[in-house]
Amino acid sequence: MAWNDGLSVKVQQFDSQHKELVAIINELHESMKDGNSTEIIGTTLDRLISYTATHFFEEEQLMDSHDYPDSVTHKAAHECLIQQVLELQQMFKTGKAIMTLDVMMFLRDWLMGHIQIVDKKYGAFLNSKGVA
Ligand code: FE2
Ligand code: FE2
């Protein structure tokens, strides 16, 4: 999974955070391909979740500070994504799931879909408030 300019949300701070999220997902993929232990993979998954939580929080704070009109919907989307990935984490921790290509594809779509459909909407609005 590679970053490209088409994924830019026109806010530098969030573009770089999205790049980091892509990097962690790629790391997870590498780790899976290398046949690393559930423990190592689990650690990377934990890192993905905590970085995601921080990123979502920062997006929400910036949206709130500029009274972004779509923030309720956006926050609900974040909440839903976090729930999905926490469920996944729980399944790994309890041994009910292993890291497979399907799971990787789920994570890729989970992240890319949100950036392309939901995050991109705030770009023009925040730019108009002087955020770039
Ligand atoms: Fe985002
Ligand atoms: Fe978002």
Characterise the protein shown here:
The protein is mainly α and 132 residues long. The chain is elongated. It is built from four helices and no strands. The protein has a single domain (10-125), classed as Hemerythrin-like (Four Helix Bundle (Hemerythrin (Met), subunit A)), CATH 1.20.120.50. The protein binds fe (ii) ion (2 copies). One fe (ii) ion binds at residues 14, 18, 55, 59, 115, 119.
Radius of gyration: 15 Å
Mean pLDDT: 94
CATH superfamily: Hemerythrin-like
SS class? mainly alpha
Q: Which regions are unreliable across 5 or more consecutive residues at pLDDT < 50?
A: none
| Number of DSSP strand runs | 0
Please write the string of helix (H) and strand (E) elements: HHHH
Cα distance spanning the termini: 25 Å
CATH architecture: Up-down Bundle
Per the CATH scheme, the topology name is Four Helix Bundle (Hemerythrin (Met), subunit A)
Cα shape: elongated
Helix count from the secondary structure assignment: 4
Bin the strand percentage: under 5%
Helical fraction equals over 70%
Sheet bearing the most strands, described? none
Ligands and ions found = fe (ii) ion
Which CATH class? Mainly Alpha
- Total individual domains: 1
Can I get a quick summary?
The chain is mainly alpha-helical and 132 residues long. It has helices at residues 12-33, 38-65, 71-93, 101-128. It has one domain (10-125): Up-down Bundle (Four Helix Bundle (Hemerythrin (Met), subunit A)).
Summary keywords:
132 residues, mainly alpha, Four Helix Bundle (Hemerythrin (Met), subunit A), elongated
